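Amino Acid Chain and Its Fold in Token Form
===========================================
What this section holds: a protein sequence and its matching fold, both as plain text.
Structure line: whole-number tokens from a learned vocabulary of local backbone shapes, matched to residues.
Purpose: to set a sequence beside its fold so the mapping can be learned.
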Amino acid sequence: MEIKNKTSAWTLIVAAVSGFLASFILTYDKFKVLKDSGYTPSCNINSTLNCKSVMLSKQAEVFGFPNSLIGVATFAMMLVIAVALFFGVRFPKIFWQLVLAGTALAVIFCHWLAFQTTFIIGALCPYCMVAWFATLLVLSVAFRELIQFKRDSLTDESSIEATETIQKWMVPFHLLWAALLIGSAFLGV
């Protein structure tokens, strides 16, 4: 197995597992709150880090069901993809283009939700922030894999080195982006 696939596989495994667990726990807590209005979700820490305020908002059900169910489904799919990558499966370019398109929409949705929780709701959901973070990691993997297709078609050594450098910094760049997003949310609340 090539080292680039291990990096993508491990990054996607971390993203998928953390995103799935956060989404699953958030969904569980949401259903508990719906059954018992006195229930305190596991992620209620203080007035700023308060999942209940977020999960009871209209923004928590943009499509008529809990947003966290989208995370449960998509992060489960990402885990299957991650395991396949780990075992050496090479997906076609169109596959990664579709993953990139879907993940780009998810990132836009996450940024909208981050804005809503920070400036409209006035509380932050720790599990939501884990999902935002995980979504950015999935985006970095999609970019890395698409850059690899470009790299495979290059013959000029300097171009190959340039794409390798971009690939190497893709995950750290998105980690920094996630840190800035979450840090900005804390500053905004």
Notes: The chain has a mean pLDDT of 90. The helical segments are 3-35, 51-55, 67-86, 93-121, 126-152, 157-188. The chain has one domain: 3-188. Residues 47 and 123 are 7 Å apart (CA to CA).
